[in-house]
Amino acid sequence: MKVVIFDMDGTLLDSKKDITISINYVRKSNYNLAPLSEDFIVEAINKEVRNLPELFYNTQIYMPSDRDLFEEHYEKQCIVNPYLYDGIQETLQELVACGIKISVATNAPTKFAQRMLSYLEVSHLFDMIIGADKVKASKPDPQMLEEILKHYNFDKSSHKAWMVGDNSKDILSAKNAGINSIFATWGFTPHAIHDIVISEPKDILDIVL
C-alpha cells in the first residue's frame, strides 16, 4: 500500500485572497486597524515560529471574539475565490486511479477544509480530510498524520507514505511521523531547501508511482 497525505492551503489550493479578506474584516470590525496585504499574511502563516494573533490583531493570544468573528466570516468567504493549482485535479485523479490512498492533513478547521474541497469538486477523492480541531496539537506535531495512517492500518515495514506540503511544518510533521516528505514550490513558498523539492503537481506521480 502507498499513501499520499496532502496539506491543503498553498499545496492543493490557493486560498490567500479569502483568508486575507476575513482577517482584514476582523481587524477593521474589532480594532479599526488598516488592512494587511496578502503577501504579509501568507508569509506570517508560513513562518515556523510566530505569534499570529500579535501579527494580525496586535494581541498576545487569539481573543475568542476575534476567532468567532473570523470563523463566522470565513465560513461564507472561504468558497468565494479559492482555486486548485494547475495540475492538482489531474494528479489526484491519477493517484486514485493507480490505487494510491490519498488524504488531507490541514492546520485549518476540518469544516472549512471539507467545504472548500467540496466546492472545488475534489473532496470525494480523499479517504480522510482532517483539520487541527480533530487533534490536540497541529502540524508540525505528527498527530494528524498518525490518525490518517491508523485509518489505513499502515505498516511501516511493508507500506510507503509521503506528506506533500508547502512549508516547514508539513516537512517536520512527516519527519515526526516517520514518513517521507515532498516540498511543493507552486503554492505559498516558491523556494525551499529540502531533500525532495517539486515544482509541479505531476512530479508527485514520478516519485510515488
Secondary structure topology:
Elements: E1 2-6, E2 13-14, H1 16-31, H2 38-46, H3 52-57, H4 64-77, E3 83-84, H5 88-97, E4 101-106, H6 110-119, E5 129-131, H7 143-151, E6 160-165, H8 168-177, E7 180-184, E8 197-198, H9 203-208
Parallel strand pairs: 1-4, 1-6, 4-5, 6-7, 7-8
Antiparallel strand pairs: 2-3
Helix pairs in contact: 1-4
Protein model, in words:
It is a single chain. The chain has about 210 residues and is an alpha/beta fold. It has 2 domains: about 1-15 and about 85-209, Rossmann fold, CATH 3.40.50; about 15-75. Helix content is about 45%, strand content about 15%. The protein contains 9 helices and 8 strands. The strands form 2 sheets. A 6-stranded parallel β-sheet has the order 5-4-1-6-7-8, with helices on both faces. Strands 2-3 form a two-stranded antiparallel ribbon. α1 (about 15-30) packs across α4. The longest helix is centred in the first third of the chain and has 16 residues, at about 15-30. It is globular. The model has no long low-confidence stretch (mean pLDDT about 95).
